[in-house]
Amino acid sequence: MDSNIKESLQPTAATTLPQLIRSSALAFGDRPAITLTTERGNQSLTFKELQSHSEEIARGLVARGIGKGSRVGFIFGNGPMFALLFAAISRIGAIAVPISTFIKAQELVRVIRQSDVIGLIIQSQFLGKNYIARVCEALPELNSPPSTQLQMQEVPFLRWVVSDGDQPHAAIHPMSWLLNAAVEINPSLISAMEQEVHPTDQLMEIYTSGSMAMPKGVKHCHGPTMARTHYLRSKLSVVPGGSSSLPMPLFWVGGLMMFLLPNLEMGATTECTESTATNSRMAMGSVLAKEDLALLPKANTIWALGMTETLGPYSYADSLRVEGFPLCPPLDHIAEGFEVRVADSNDNPVAEGEVGEIQVRGYALTPGLHKMLREDYFTADGFYHTGDLGQPDGQRVHFVGRNGDLIKTTNTNVSPAEIEMEMQQLPDIQSAYVVGIPDREKGQLVVAAVVADDGVELNFEVIKAQLSSRLSSFKVPKRYLQITRDDVPMLPSNKVSRREIEKMMAERLS
After folding, report:
1. DSSP structure class, residue 178
2. FRET pair for 270, CA 20 to 30 Å: which of 261, 264, 289, 465?
């Protein structure tokens, strides 16, 4: 056994993902690690198979030119194959770049170019969507076989694309192209590579858009990821040998950190289905309704704020809600390894009762954003600009809203999240999106795009009257527009694009 991955090592002591994969295979063997239930049949992968099958894929990757520091993207839904690719890429020191299955063609071009991936592995079909067609729409040159490796100016570092199965398609290779090459690489070479994967090496890059025009690649290294896995496992009700249903995508940090990795550490089964809750409902730091909270894994604590940059929740609460602050549980406690402060525009702590930006610093915080200057997102003393607004109240901090989302109307700040929460509690409303559009008199006019329950035509006069009994008059939207689910614009990170909603409302409401 390798000196860096000893037989005596327990999964709870792993400091790299390769260590976790090997130690969990030794500890839990033939227990199912991850399952997938579909209408077409069921799939199951044991801990031992996760170790052996990911090693085979890792050998194929090495044979096809992937090594330490290489970036490999993959588009897969939840299930065994996602776990295998994530494990295989990490075991050779390469960087895993999971990409949202919700991504559209033009967004995909931007993510591939921004991430510098050398190889891309895709699921050919998922939930009725043809990803071979989507990738070819993004990169039309893939419809013609290249004479050598791929050379595309739009994505200059991409050298090959592979899809699952064995169906040939011009410049997209079948999975056999990768696996057949594995025989060229001795398994002992993979073991030697694993010895040179260190806690300080980058493990993955999670792509999220937020309100930015360009995709944002959030880096995370092996050591911090494993430290957060150990911490979250201690807070979650993960039963050794038990199982838990996965309600959110694995390409999002919540699925990885709140389910898959803690389950791998404890020998529990991660049960997957193809459909999941959308990230727009489950994103850490958003307004969660009771039905959303029920989807989170059972824990011995109440989660408060978290984000991709902190590998999930960095704070938790003593109570679910505090009067006057309905948007989020209070930040009563800060997770192990993190520091939090509420600061003004000069990064100085604000006084109690004042509103400032919540800033966070710690070991498991992202070391940086790919291709972006550190000083654009970090303070001089290493705190990260979260963009969340907080108000200190003794030892706790209340979440007030998102800095960029606040609406300024008649010289008063309005939090869209608070209004949306109230609207979504009204009958017949499935979801609501409140934004501000330019107005000569008020500065911004508060307006709402509303998705109704199926088959319902909303009466906005009634809704306005109901909101007037719940909210201050300046918070009640002045104009409304009923839209469908398909009208809601989404970012590649599967979050709602508020900027696009603003444009849509301005155009449709004239």
Report:
1. H
2. 289
